């Protein structure tokens, strides 16, 4: 700054002009310095604003992704639970129906066997009694 002042002031012819010239150079240097500082501050503010906007956008995107993932996981869990409950209910109903059918079939078979045994017993008794003495059987 001093060299610039001296070289510009060297172009002047008298002391008064040299002093004015140095004052002009000092004013210009101060103005340039203020402009440079203002530009640097403006650029810094813009950079900070851009960084803040980028951070906000990234945070919003991350929050949205997390919410979507949580919703998808909850939906999948609910669907899996519903499917498992439906399958368990169907299996229980099928098992109950099969058990009821088996019990009914076994009961019918027992009744048929009991009836068959009773009929055979009656036939045997009738044949035996008829062969011996039918009148004794009829008295009873």
Automatic annotation (TrEMBL):
Keywords: Membrane, Transmembrane, Transmembrane helix
Transmembrane stretches, start-end: 28-61, 68-101, 107-129
Domain of life: Eukaryota
Protein name (record): ABC transmembrane type-1 domain-containing protein
Species, as recorded: Elysia marginata
């Amino acid at each position: 700054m001093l060299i610039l002042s001296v070289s510009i002031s060297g172009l002047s012819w008298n002391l008064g002009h040299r002093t004015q010239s140095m004052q002009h150079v000092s004013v210009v240097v101060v103005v340039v310095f203020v402009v440079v500082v203002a530009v640097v501050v403006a650029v810094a503010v813009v950079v900070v604003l851009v960084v803040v906007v980028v951070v906000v956008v990234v945070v919003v995107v991350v929050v949205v992704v997390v919410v979507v993932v949580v919703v998808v996981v909850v939906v999948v869990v609910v669907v899996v639970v519903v499917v498992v409950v439906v399958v368990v209910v169907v299996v229980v109903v099928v098992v109950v129906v099969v058990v009821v059918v088996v019990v009914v079939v076994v009961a019918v078979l027992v009744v048929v066997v009991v009836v068959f045994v009773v009929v055979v017993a009656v036939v045997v008794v009738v044949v035996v009694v008829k062969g011996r003495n039918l009148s004794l059987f009829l008295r009873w």
